[in-house]
Amino acid sequence: MIIAVDGPAASGKGTIARALAGHYGLPHLDTGLLYRAVAFTVRRLELDPTREADAVAACDFDDLTLADPALRDDDVGQLASIVSAHPLVRASLLQRQRRFANQQGGAVLDGRDIGTVIAPDADAKLFVKATPQIRARRRHTELQSRGDTTSFDRVLADIRVRDARDSGRDAAPLIMASDAALLDTTFLSIEESIRRATVLVDAALAAKAKTAE
Ligand code: CDP
Ligand code: CDP
């Protein structure tokens, strides 16, 4: 069983994907972390993120990087959206994500292109959205709790830039898969978002079982 959860920054997809993984007893992969690790490595090695060859070299990052809390920094997210637009970077991370998705027993993955590129045959697909304002408020609160003093206006501007970059790129742009269920979390608490996500996944699984009969 493969569950694909896609959506823009701070829409709640990670929180939802983690909860779904717990609920269905499946392993979870936050694919954004892979792109963040590439971005972080580009910066550490002082490479040029706009040069595809430089970004590809950084795809060979040490797996220990994935556990570095600095990957969650706002500027690493911005840099991730620059390196992730290179087709060869996406190609270089593809197999790792596909292997995770297709492991025995299934998996939950969250990102931007899980339902469209990584696991187009996923059993259940969710597209999570929320207004830029509420997403910026959530991310701002998150950053504050980590002692990061980035202003709300800056976080909102960064979210808008990243949305435009992720949606406007040619390689695997952020778009909702035609067979995904839409979940707008703008006015939902975390608990309610998770509850509705579970209802949507159950409905997708039931529909799939019915067509298989
Ligand atoms: O957590 P947040 O939504 O802020 O970002 P993330 O999921 O960690 O992703 C960081 C960046 O990686 C995104 O802005 C995308 O540009 C890129 N990304 C991607 O292109 N494809 C994915 N499957 C996941 C992330
Ligand atoms: O993975 P993504 O960047 O889409 O978002 P997230 O990390 O799951 O959520 C971003 C922040 O919003 C976290 O601090 C969540 O706890 C919070 N959140 C919320 O306040 N209300 C929701 N309905 C969903 C998430």
UniProtKB/TrEMBL annotation:
<dbReference type="Pfam" id="PF02224">
    <property type="entry name" value="Cytidylate_kin"/>
</dbReference>
<dbReference type="InterPro" id="IPR027417">
    <property type="entry name" value="P-loop_NTPase"/>
</dbReference>
<keyword id="KW-0963">Cytoplasm</keyword>
<keyword id="KW-0418">Kinase</keyword>
<dbReference type="GO" id="GO:0016301">
    <property type="term" value="F:kinase activity"/>
</dbReference>
<protein>
    <recommendedName>
        <fullName>Cytidylate kinase</fullName>
        <ecNumber>2.7.4.25</ecNumber>
    </recommendedName>
</protein>
<dbReference type="InterPro" id="IPR003136">
    <property type="entry name" value="Cytidylate_kin"/>
</dbReference>
<keyword id="KW-0547">Nucleotide-binding</keyword>
<feature type="binding site">
    <location>
        <begin position="7"/>
        <end position="15"/>
    </location>
    <ligand>
        <name>ATP</name>
    </ligand>
</feature>
<comment type="similarity">
    <text>Belongs to the cytidylate kinase family. Type 1 subfamily.</text>
</comment>
<keyword id="KW-0808">Transferase</keyword>
<keyword id="KW-0067">ATP-binding</keyword>
<dbReference type="InterPro" id="IPR011994">
    <property type="entry name" value="Cytidylate_kinase_dom"/>
</dbReference>
<feature type="domain" description="Cytidylate kinase">
    <location>
        <begin position="3"/>
        <end position="198"/>
    </location>
</feature>
